[in-house]
C-alpha cells in the first residue's frame, strides 16, 4: 500500500512504533570519522526521519544492531549462572537492498548452519525491516553484478525525494495507521539501481584449484591484516569468546561474544602453539573464496552482497571486487602450470 507524505507523517509512525521498538538507521556522527574534523555514517538510534542519511552509504553495516561488537551472553559466580537480559524492545531497522539480502546470509549462519543461535534468534524474531531505496549507485557498489539490487522482503519502504517521503507498506497495522492520518493511497515502487560503475565477473567454473595461483602472494605485503574489511562487511559472522573476571571477585564474571576476523593475527591459533594462514595473502585467499565459492556451493548463492564497504574502508586501497575479477586469469594460470 503506497503513500506520499511529508516528514510529519513518517515521524508520527515512528513515534507510534517507539513504544515497542527501538528505531535504527544510518545517521551522521560528527567527529566520528578517521580524523577529528571528519564524520562517519553508521547505524544508531533515531528519533526522526530527518536524522536518516539517505544520500550516503553507511561506512558500517547494520549487523551491529543484531550482533553487537561485544555482547554479554551470561554472568557467572561460584554458585550460579544468570543469562544476560534480552533487549526490552524489538527493533525497526532501515536497510538498503544489499543489507536486506545480507540479513538472509546472517540467518543462514546463525539459524540454519547447525543448531539455532539462541541469542540471535531472540532478537531476530522481533525486528521489522524498512527498505531504503537507492536512486543512484554509490562508489564501489556492485550490487547489480551480485543480483541483489532489488529487495521485496520488507515491512515498509521509503524513498526521500525533494522533501517528500514515498512509502510502500506491507505491514497491515502500519498501513492502517498511515491511512488513519488521512494520507491517500497511491502506487509507490521503491527505487533501485540498474547499473553500477563497478562490475564483477565470477567465473562459472570457479573451483578450489585457484588457491594455487600466484595472485595471492602480492597481498602478503599489501595487506596489513587490520581486519577492517571484515568488521564493516554485513555478512561476516565470525566471533570469539572471552571470559571477563571481575577484579573484586576473581570467581565471578561474564562471558562475552566478541567480533573476530579471519584477516587478523590470532584468528587461526590452535592448541599447541600452532597457527594456520600466517601470511596475509593466505588470509585474503580464504576470505575471497569463502565469499564467492564455498558459501555458494553450500547455499546456492554468493555470500557477498556487493555493498562495496570493504573497498571503501581499506587503508591500503585493496579492492575486493578487483581481486574477484582477477580469478578467471588466475584459473588459467593454474591450468597452464598443471599442463606443463
Automatic annotation (TrEMBL):
**Residues annotated as domain 4Fe-4S ferredoxin-type:** 213-244, 294-323
Q: Which Pfam families match?
A: Fer4_22 (PF17179)
Iron: is it a keyword of this entry?
Answer: yes
PROSITE patterns linked to this entry: 4FE4S_FER_1 (PS00198), 4FE4S_FER_2 (PS51379)
InterPro entries under this entry?
4Fe4S_Fe-S-bd, 4Fe4S_Fe_S_CS, Helical_ferredxn, Sulphite_reductase_A
- PANTHER family registered for this protein in UniProt: ANAEROBIC SULFITE REDUCTASE SUBUNIT A (PTHR40447)
Protein name in the entry: Anaerobic sulfite reductase subunit A
Species = Wansuia hejianensis
Taxonomic lineage from the root: Bacteria, Bacillati, Bacillota, Clostridia, Lachnospirales
